[in-house]
Design brief:
Elements: H1 3-15, E1 20-25, H2 31-37, E2 49-54, E3 60-64, E4 77-81, H3 84-94, E5 100-103, H4 119-127, E6 131-134, H5 136-143, H6 148-175, E7 181-183, H7 184-197, E8 200-201, E9 207-210, E10 228-230, E11 234-243, E12 259-266, H8 273-298, H9 305-318, E13 332-333, E14 360-363, E15 366-369, E16 373-376, E17 379-384, E18 387-390, E19 399-400
Parallel strand pairs: 1-5, 3-4, 5-6, 12-19
Antiparallel strand pairs: 1-2, 2-3, 7-10, 8-11, 9-11, 11-12, 13-14, 14-17, 15-16, 17-18
Helix pairs in contact: 6-7, 8-9
Length: 401
């Protein structure tokens, strides 16, 4: 970890009026710690280690004697332990003078994405008189805030992937004319080839869902289960990718940021009144979330993930379809597709994390009728100081193929 990184972390600790941030790991149970501290995520770890960064002053390391070099790449003083009694004594000593300490913990497991520390370790620290608070907002700063190069990588992926998606819809249109057909898995394979040819990487998928399969928000077609797509069908495509490493379609560019979108269409006909009503409701919910976020940024007002979720969910609730909107409105997007910043969520979790400047996230409300069809309308946004922008085209009407 560089001195500038340490200064950034300590500045963030002070900004949140904390006495320090305590990192702890055993058997790689906390991948966040490795990324934030710049440690080798593949290193062998068989014993507990602790790393305490105070708001001011020198960090402190605590390691087991048989893995005494485990944190040598990090700055600060080092103490070692062998017995559990010695560990507890040294842990109390290394946090002496600090009371309010952040850890990868979330009260009531509300933000489970950062709940990496076991309850027993929290209990031990509390027995020392420590006030253990969640590091969720600190994690967002160092996991979700993007560099200018990362933001540009998202826009490059956006332009490339939108072309792949356009070609996919054209394939369905061409294949279903004059009584013809294709199938979900064939569309997925076509899109995968397009992703590779565009110099992009994806970890799995994409998804193409026809008819009642579109009502399953995490449906994944296989060669054996693939449903035919023909005139008269309702179709949903969810597709995501990021820049691939030069010369490799199987490895992503290390710091590249994902682009993730979902669109829907009807094949060989006009939408029914019900399909049109559901699409319009979902679109309006999407736009309500966008407007709420943009308004907050224009007014320089903080906004949490749950507030954006409420804006979208209230539209769907008002239309009478609340029970059919079964997932959060959006997720953070960064180097990981589902990143460690604020999600747009007041359903699965009450996400109080702030939508920080220079972060990316999806807005993707949906309404799903099992056995019938489902609509999801997904776009991505990036926040910038004073504004929040949608990063790609928005689908405002059902596609007619």
């Amino acid at each position: 970890m560089t001195s500038s990184r340490l200064e950034q972390i300590q500045s963030a600790i002070r900004d949140q009026h904390l006495d320090g941030w305590l990192f702890y790991d055993h058997h790689h149970r906390d991948p966040l710690a490795y990324r934030i501290l710049g440690l080798d995520e593949n290193s062998f770890v068989s014993r507990r280690w602790f790393y305490f960064i105070p708001a001011n002053g020198e960090p402190r390391r605590l390691v087991h004697r048989i893995e005494s070099g485990k944190l040598n790449v990090l700055p600060g003083s080092k103490r070692a332990y062998s017995s559990w009694q010695e560990l507890e004594s040294e842990l109390a000593a290394m946090t002496e003078g600090a009371t309010k300490i952040a850890m990868q913990y979330s009260p009531r497991n509300a933000i489970m994405y950062v709940s990496m520390v076991d309850a027993g370790t929290v209990e031990l620290l509390r027995s020392f008189g420590k006030d253990i608070v969640s590091s969720a907002d600190l994690v967002s700063i160092f996991e979700a805030v993007l560099t200018e190069a990362q933001i540009e990588s998202h826009f490059v992926a956006q332009r490339k992937l939108d072309e792949v998606l356009r070609a996919g819809w054209q394939l369905i249109s061409d294949s279903t004319k004059d009584g013809g057909h294709t199938d979900e898995f064939s569309v997925v394979e076509f899109l995968q080839r397009g992703i590779t040819a565009a110099g992009l990487f994806t970890d799995h998928g994409p998804n193409c869902s026809a008819g009642p399969n579109s009502a399953d928000s995490h449906y994944e077609p296989t060669r054996d289960s693939s449903r035919r797509i023909q005139s008269g069908d309702f179709v949903l495509i969810d597709i995501w990718a990021k820049l691939a490493s030069a010369g490799s379609s199987t490895h992503p560019e290390p710091d590249a940021v994902w682009y993730d979108i979902t669109t829907t269409a009807v094949v060989g006909r006009e939408p029914t009144d019900r399909e049109q009503q559901i699409f319009s409701t979902v679109r309006d919910a999407r736009d309500a979330a966008i407007k709420t976020i943009q308004s907050a940024y224009e007014k320089n007002q903080p906004i949490a993930g749950w507030q954006a979720d409420d804006a979208a969910r209230n539209i769907i609730r008002g239309a009478g379809f609340a029970e059919f909107f079964t997932h959060r409105t959006g997720h953070n997007i960064a180097v990981s597709l589902h990143g460690n910043g604020a999600h747009l969520d007041n359903l699965e979790t009450h996400d109080e994390r702030l939508l920080l400047p220079n972060t990316c996230f999806s807005v993707e409300p949906g309404i799903y009728f099992p056995g019938e069809f489902g609509v999801r309308n997904e776009i991505n946004m990036i926040t910038r100081p004073g504004k929040a922008v949608v990063t790609g085209p928005m689908q405002n009407e059902l596609f007619r193929l």
